[in-house]
From TrEMBL:
Keywords: Membrane, Transmembrane, Transmembrane helix. This is Dolichyl-phosphate-mannose-protein mannosyltransferase. It comes from the Bacteria. Coiled coil: none annotated. The chain crosses the membrane at residues 68-88, 100-118, 124-143, 150-181, 187-205, 408-431, 437-453. It comes from Muricoccus roseus. The lineage of its organism: Bacteria, Pseudomonadati, Pseudomonadota, Alphaproteobacteria, Acetobacterales.
Length: 465
């Protein structure tokens, strides 16, 4: 392809990416979440944080260089835009700049995708790795060797960027078997790359050859919040000798199923979150009230023991709670909201942005997000998202069923459905149901319906192409 034919493609992908990042332009600055500061710290501070893979922070650094965060959200938008271009070519019966911009425009106006793209968080990689897997598994015939290699690299980095992506991609390897062993092997390549990245970075940073050296703390918090974890501590203490034994009974009750009796719990604040991050929680303070340095890391060893003991003691209760949390995440936690309010940013993020210079910090503080104006600014635009998601889900199911004899069509529809379910389990059951976890991928139902409708309209299957 010469430079002249390539120019409209590049322009379409770039413009599509900018369209998808519109909340950042509305706010006057990229959207930040409390965890964004931790990812900035990964290239600002000396420590490799205990609770997050050392992947997204260094990847974002390639674009911001401690100068400005704008290139990060532009790159995220272009990444998603390019994946949509490839998806149109592979699944949508072919693509043109006009068709691509129509898809980007619909997703920008009617779904939560832009709020994921505009947010400096690894959540943008969740739909990215899902699309990578579907393209490698079912759309390989439409890709060049260079594009396939790029998807493997992007898929590996994206899968490693958030631990919830590993079970998601594992599920998609299984779905790809519909297209044969070779297809599944192609999807397994980025999974293997992600595993290697996590093992190496955790060995270097934590001295442990592990995918998640301290991840058991999150699962323990979920089990405590649901109740079975509390039962285990009550039954095993004080003989178990765990640090949490000192809080047995009344000390842990405010973090269990009755937590919201003790305090007001907004929709986006779960008892497990309070248990993990409240400075006064038993994870972060010892029995004398003294702060426990890096409490989640310090208690991860006994957290593994508590998790194992709880699953052994109450396997049915744990399974039922996991199923409930998965369904809650899948069905009821898909809207924009838990990243928009001023309180979602926290206070620590500002210090990390200030390391970029006083001018950048001033731009951040002048933005609508820091000022707390974003919810009011976008509220008139959000009402349409839930009905559009419902229509997208229905359309995707109908089009997938009608084209079920075509492996490519069936693979796309089933792959999106499986990805959404795996994402709901990996986040809702293992961490806790939050809107941002669902919103980051729910829009794929709308995109998938557009792709299959476009394919049907193109007549590509009738031509036998």
């Amino acid at each position: 392809m010469g430079l002249k034919p390539l120019a409209p493609v590049l322009a379409s992908v770039l413009v599509g990416g900018l369209m998808l990042a519109w909340p950042a332009f509305l706010a006057g600055y990229p959207l930040l979440f409390s965890d964004s500061g931790a990812f900035l710290h990964q290239t600002l501070g000396p420590l490799m944080l205990w609770d997050k893979p050392w992947i997204y922070g260094p990847a974002a650094f390639l674009f911001h260089w401690h100068s400005t965060l704008w290139p990060v959200v532009v790159a995220q938008g272009v990444m998603v835009s390019h994946l949509l271009w490839l998806a149109l070519r592979a699944f949508g019966g072919g693509t043109t700049p006009a068709r691509h911009l129509l898809l980007c425009g619909l997703l920008a106006a009617l779904t939560a995708l832009p709020f994921t793209v505009a947010l400096v968080m690894p959540d943008v990689f969740t739909p990215a790795v899902l699309l990578c897997a579907l393209l490698l598994g079912f759309g390989r015939a439409a890709l060049s060797r260079g594009e396939a290699a790029w998807l493997c690299v992007l898929g590996a980095v994206g899968t490693a960027a958030h631990l919830s992506h590993l079970p998601l991609m594992g599920a998609l390897v299984v779905v790809s078997l519909l297209a044969g062993w070779r297809a599944a092997a192609r999807v397994a390549v980025p999974v293997a790359g992600a595993v290697a990245l996590l093992l190496v970075t955790n060995l270097l940073g934590h001295g442990r050859l592990s995918l998640s050296p301290h991840g058991a703390t999150f699962m323990m918090a979920r089990l405590v919040a649901n109740g079975p974890g509390l039962n285990t501590i009550d039954a095993a203490c004080p003989e178990a000798g765990w640090a949490l034994c000192a809080f047995k009974g009344p000390g842990l009750d405010p973090y269990g199923p009755r937590a919201c009796i003790y305090r007001r719990c907004p929709r986006d604040l779960l008892p497990s979150d309070i248990f993990l991050w409240d400075p006064a929680s038993p994870i972060n303070r010892n029995e004398t009230g003294r702060p426990r340095d890096f409490g989640g890391r310090a208690l991860s060893g006994e957290a593994r023991e508590i998790v194992r003991a709880t699953i052994a003691r109450e396997p049915l209760a744990v399974a039922l709670d996991a199923a409930r949390d998965t369904l809650t995440q899948l069905i009821f936690r898909n809207r924009v909201g838990d990243t928009l309010e001023r309180r979602h940013i926290g206070e620590g993020v500002l210090g990390h942005v200030q390391a970029f210079g006083p001018e950048e910090a001033a731009r951040f503080q002048a933005g609508a997000h820091w000022r707390g104006d974003m919810p009011a600014l976008v509220a008139p635009l959000l009402w349409v998202q839930e009905p559009v998601l419902l229509l997208g889900a229905i359309a995707l199911a109908i089009l997938g069923w009608r084209g079920r004899r075509n492996r490519l069509v069936l693979g796309l529809a089933l792959g999106i459905a499986t990805g959404l379910l795996a994402n709901a389990f990996a986040t809702g059951a293992l961490s806790g149901p939050h809107d941002r976890y669902g919103a980051r991928v729910a829009w794929l139902m709308v995109a998938g319906a557009f792709l299959l409708a476009s394919r049907a309209g193109s007549g590509v299957d009738r031509r036998g192409v």
